[in-house]
Structures are given as C-alpha cells and as structure tokens.
C-alpha cells in the first residue's frame, strides 16, 4: 500500500483498503493475526485494527491534512498554521550515502506524520523501543506540514556537492545593526514544521531528530506561535507582538502567476534540481517590548506607516487599501513617513517576498530582566539576492522600527521541490 493510497479524505475509504504488510505486522504485534481473524472474518479484522491501532483510529481526522506529496513542498504557500517548530541540523557523517538514507527515512516519516499516522512498524512491540515516540497518538494531523531545506554549508567539500550549490545560496551579508548569535544561525539542514497543534509540531521535530541519530544533530531550534484559529474564527490577519496586523501586504498565495514570479524557482534560472523549490530566509528578531510599550500610539503608527487597530495605511481607512505612498500632508511631508517600515519594505513595489513569520517568546534575558520575545521572521523567495537582500539593506539603514528590534539570528536554506510518491526529499540533488 502506498502512502498516497492511505491519504484520502474519506475515512470510510480507509476501511475498504487492502491490508498492507505493515498493517499485518502491526496487528500481529498486538496479539497475533490468528486471534484477530477469529474476531469475525475480515470485517472484524479491520475493526480490530481500528480499535487497537492508533494509525487508523477514527479519532484521526483525515480531513485535517495537508498533502505531503506534490510538485512543490507544503508549508510554503500553505496558509500559515497556528504553531511553528523550526529546527536546524548539522550533519556529522561524512558519507553522502548516509545523508541520502536519512532523507529517505525522513520522507517516509514525514509522509506518515502528515497523515496523522504513527511512524514505523514497531509501536506495539514490548521488547523494542517504539518507532514513534507516541505523544501524537490519537491526535489529529492538525494540518502539519514539514518543509525541508539545505543551507550553504551543505555544499562544502564533505559530500562532493560543491559544484551544485546554487549561486543564490550563500550566507547573508552583515546588515547594519545585526547582533547575531551563533545560537540561532546557519545549519546544514533546516526543517520548518507548522501545525495547528503544538504537540503535533513538536512530535515531528523530535522524531526527525531521533531518526537522524548518528548522522545529524540538532544545533538550534525555535518555536513560534500566532493567534489560534479558535481565538479568531474569522481568520483576520494575525497581529505581531507589537500589536500590529502583520501579513497584509503579502502576495496572494492563490495567484499562480504571482507565486511563480515571487516564490518558486523557475526552470529558466536553475539549477535544475531547484525548479519548483524556493529559498527560505529565517531571521530571529528580538523586540524591545519594554521600550515599545512606553511609546505613544501615534509614533508606533508612524513607525509602521499603518494604523494599529484597522491595519489600514496612514491616511486610508481599510486594511487592504493601497499604500498610497505619493500622498502628502498639508505641510508637504509624506503621509507615510520616509523612514516607516512599510515604505522602506515596499520600495518601488516591483519586488515582493512571501512572509511566513511567527511570534516567539523564550523566557527572559536574565542579564537584563527583559523578555526574550519577538518575531521569528521567515520568508520565501525565488532569489535571495534580488528580493530579500535589497529589502533588508533598505530596512537596516533607515527603518524607524530599528529603535525597537534587533536581529539576533540568521539562516538561509534552499528548500527542495516537492516529492513524488515513491521518491524522497532531495532526490533531485543527490
Ligand atoms: C527584509 C524583510 C522584512 C523584515 C526583516 C521585516 C521585519 C519585520 N516586519 C514587521 C512588521 C510588519 N511588516 C509589515 C510589512 C512588510 N514587511 C516586509 C518585509 C520585512 N519585514 C514587507 C515586504 C512588508 C510589506 C510591504 C508592502 O509592500 O506593503 C507590516 C505591515 C503589514 C503588512 O503588510 O504585513 C508590519 C506590521 C516586524 C515587527 C518586523 C521585525 C520584527
Ligand atoms: Fe515587515
């Protein structure tokens, strides 16, 4: 049975499917095949499987899935879920064959987790460690997406892949004001897990790290959140920790032309292995919340160039009204200040990125007593050099927001194209 056959949205279809070797093994592990067949023919067999095995339990909501297989990886233009668990890995093995085997195992595990299934075949054997750590058993897939990328260091001389590094994929230049800590920088591999349940997201990262044992190790992680769908059933633009709607100016992910222009690497630019992939930038941006909270509202709004409550551009009335950067006040000054965040990020409007950021809160800085909270900025783009870098250069030079933020982490990853069933993540490269 293929993974895809198991991924249909119709729960009944799960019951009509042929029983796989894996199912047989699993069922044998919980008391013996003969015993279950004795429970009432094939119908009883399947029923017993449902009740005894969380993998096909009716509690797993199959409508709550984002397909894992496809032309492009999920988790990029997928509408952002409520929670993020991000992980960067360093590869310890020097053998490409080990890395390939790891990505093959990760692919199988990711396909299972995104369907809300437990990983592997050894979850009912009492004499071996389970192949799934178990904390997501009985939980819905929660729209979990698992997005894989490789960083510039993946292409050093360890694996013979240096000739395949995309020109795009290099560490970002130092920007004005950066205070980067290696605690949140770089990585041979970056994995973005997003889900509508934190335990489901954590489970995914934990199990991917467990599977990597002996081949790759975690070097940094970051959890993130936004308001949940439960708290905002009408799905308004989420607010960041500075209280402003964040995401309004994103390109429309349902517009295929816009996504081809902004997000997906095209055949024409290469390298061939990246076609339908995308470049991801992560920046851990700490907010000086205590300073912001002492700033008057009019100055906060001038900082962004938008009103806090409605999210509308200054001088306009609705959130999605055009920015109107040409408008001037009676005193001749621009309505949207020249050093405001939206004006600088927008530039001349010809270049966009797709932002997919999450708020984070990681306790306090014990040295200062201030909260270590902010934005785990994530963006996807076709070209880091033509899209992200010029934008961040403008922002780092003149953005009024810089009084209230500091960039403390930075990483870039080439996110592979999607994977076909039977294939594995990264197969276009190695
Ligand atoms: C280099 C890219 C960007 C970084 C880094 C960045 C940091 C950052 N942004 C906010 C809050 C907001 N950003 C908004 C708009 C916006 N930001 C960027 C890029 C970066 N932001 C772009 C491209 C845009 C859209 C500009 C446009 O064309 O309209 C807004 C306004 C609402 C919105 O459009 O989302 C807010 C609010 C924070 C807090 C932050 C770092 C902590
Ligand atoms: Fe921004």
Task: Offer a quick outline of the entry.
The chain has helices at residues 11-16, 21-28, 33-37, 41-52, 96-114, 198-211, 256-262, 289-292, 297-304, 341-346, 384-398; strands at 83-91, 145-150, 189-195, 216-225, 278-287, 354-355, 358-365, 370-381, 405-415. It is an alpha+beta fold and 430 residues long.
Description of the structure:
The chain has 430 residues and is of the alpha+beta class. It has a domain at 1-58. The chain contains eleven helices and nine strands. Strands 1, 2, 3, 4, 5, 6, 7, 8 and 9 form a nine-stranded antiparallel sheet that branches. A hairpin with a 4-residue loop joins strand 7 and strand 8. The structure holds the ligand C=CC1=C(C)c2cc3[nH]c(cc4nc(cc5[nH]c(cc1n2)c(C)c5CCC(=O)O)C(CCC(=O)O)=C4C)c(C)c3C=C and fe (ii) ion. Residues 240, 242, 244-249, 283, 285, 287, 304, 306, 323, 341-342, 345-346, 353, 374-375, 377, 388, 391-392, 395, 405 line the site of the ligand C=CC1=C(C)c2cc3[nH]c(cc4nc(cc5[nH]c(cc1n2)c(C)c5CCC(=O)O)C(CCC(=O)O)=C4C)c(C)c3C=C. Pfam families: Dyp_perox_C (PF20628), Dyp_perox_N (PF04261). Residues 229-249 are annotated as: Disordered. InterPro entries: Dimeric_a/b-barrel (IPR011008), Dyp_perox_C (IPR048328), Dyp_perox_N (IPR048327), Dyp_peroxidase (IPR006314), EfeB/EfeN (IPR006313), TAT_signal (IPR006311).
């Amino acid at each position: 049975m293929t993974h895809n056959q198991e991924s249909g949205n119709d729960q009944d279809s799960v019951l009509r499917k042929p029983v796989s070797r894996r199912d047989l093994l699993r069922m044998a592990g919980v008391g013996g095949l003969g015993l279950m067949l004795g429970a009432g023919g094939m119908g009883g067999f399947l029923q017993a499987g449902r009740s005894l095995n969380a993998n096909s339990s009716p509690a797993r909501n199959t409508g709550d899935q984002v397909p894992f297989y496809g032309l492009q990886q999920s988790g990029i233009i997928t509408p952002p879920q409520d929670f993020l668990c991000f992980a960067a890995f360093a590869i310890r093995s020097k053998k490409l064959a080990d890395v390939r085997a790891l990505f093959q195992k990760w692919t199988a595990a990711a396909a299972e987790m995104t369907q809300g299934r437990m990983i592997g075949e050894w979850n009912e054997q009492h004499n071996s460690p389970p192949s799934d750590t178990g904390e997501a058993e009985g939980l819905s897939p929660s729209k979990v997406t698992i997005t894989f990328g490789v960083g510039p260091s993946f292409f050093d001389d360890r694996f013979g892949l240096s000739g395949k590094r995309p020109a795009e994929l290099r560490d970002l230049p130092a920007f004005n004001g950066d205070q980067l800590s290696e605690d949140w920088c770089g990585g041979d591999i970056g994995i973005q897990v997003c889900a509508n349940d934190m335990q489901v997201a954590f489970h995914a990262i934990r199990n991917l790290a467990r599977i990597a044992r002996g081949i790759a190790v975690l070097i940094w992680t970051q959890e993130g959140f936004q308001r949940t769908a439960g708290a905002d059933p009408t799905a308004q633009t989420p607010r960041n920790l500075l209280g402003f709607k964040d995401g309004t100016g994103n390109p429309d992910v349902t517009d295929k032309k816009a996504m081809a222009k902004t997000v997906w690497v095209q055949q024409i630019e290469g390298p061939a292995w990246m076609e339908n992939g995308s470049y991801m930038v992560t920046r851990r941006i700490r907010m000086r919340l205590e300073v912001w909270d002492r700033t008057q509202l009019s100055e906060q709004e001038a900082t962004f160039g938008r009103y806090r409550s409605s999210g509308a551009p200054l001088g306009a009335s609705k959130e999605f009204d055009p920015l109107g950067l040409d408008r001037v006040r009676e005193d001749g000054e621009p309505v949207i200040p020249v050093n405001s965040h939206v004006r600088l990020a927008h530039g001349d409007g010809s270049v966009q990125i797709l932002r997919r950021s999450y708020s984070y809160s990681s306790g306090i800085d014990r040295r200062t007593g201030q909260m270590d909270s902010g934005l785990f900025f994530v963006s996807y783009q076709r070209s880091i050099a033509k899209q992200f870098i010029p934008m961040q250069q403008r922002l780092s030079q003149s953005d009024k927001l810089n009084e209230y933020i500091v960039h403390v982490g930075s990483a870039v990853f080439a996110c592979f194209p999607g994977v076909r069933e039977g294939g594995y993540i990264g197969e276009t490269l190695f």
